[in-house]
Amino acid sequence: MLELIHVNASYHSAPVVQGVSMRVETGETVALIGPNGAGKSTLLGAISGTVPQRHGQVLLDGVDLMPLYSHDIVALGVVQVPEGRHVFAPMTVQDNLLLGSVALKDRQRSLQDRFDAVYALFPRLAERRLQLAGTLSGGEQQMVAIGRAMMSKPKVLLLDEPFLGLAPKVVEEIRQALNTLRGEGLTLILVEQKLDIALPFTRRTHVMIKGQLVLVENSTDLMNSPDLGQLYFRLSQPASV
Ligand SMILES: Nc1ncnc2c1ncn2[C@@H]1O[C@H](COP(=O)(O)OP(=O)(O)O)[C@@H](O)[C@H]1O
Ligand SMILES: [Mg+2]
Q: Is 52 in the pocket of ligand 1 (CB under 6 A)?
């Protein structure tokens, strides 16, 4: 289980994420939605240790990740797939994936298994393993970003708008891959701006506005809620923290 207790996070002195507490059960898929600038990416960064100032507690099965460096957090099983993918363009698919394996336990023995698992998940990457990542389509680069995260055999995947800018067919392909992963017991936190993607895919939805969690609701209930139109409206307003 991943439990956040009163998490604050910021880059400089101005607070961004303010007092966020949430629980995600092992194997659960939850959504984190909210307008642009609400602090969704910053909250993921607070969990993965990549935001400079963070306070509170982030407990993974009772172990507090807050005092740890990001590479130690990866080694414990929490991996972020960053917004905008950030693949290394001049490197091959295979080498991009290899970079994701540095924190892999028992690396010598497990490495081939991890490659096999990622290539089984995304057969397109297997075909293109020697292609430079910069020459891949946006969807294929997203597959590399997710595949790279999977190379360290994580327990929790933090996905920051993985479907952004992708064609419906590729969105479906990636959604199916994520479905496979959660079928294997992976815990997923999905940041997503589009309710029609976030709600059907997740069990619970967290709504963040101006750095704070304002609503946590069962995704199916939210989909059927008469307040959904109101929520759409709130999410369409840019929220500078
Ligand atoms: N690297 C950064 N340095 C300084 N401020 C940042 C940085 N990244 C984001 N912010 C600020 O933090 C706030 C929340 O941003 P972000 O977490 O990216 O929101 P979201 O992911 O919900 O769109 C915004 O006001 C944004 O300008
Ligand atoms: Mg963001």
A: no
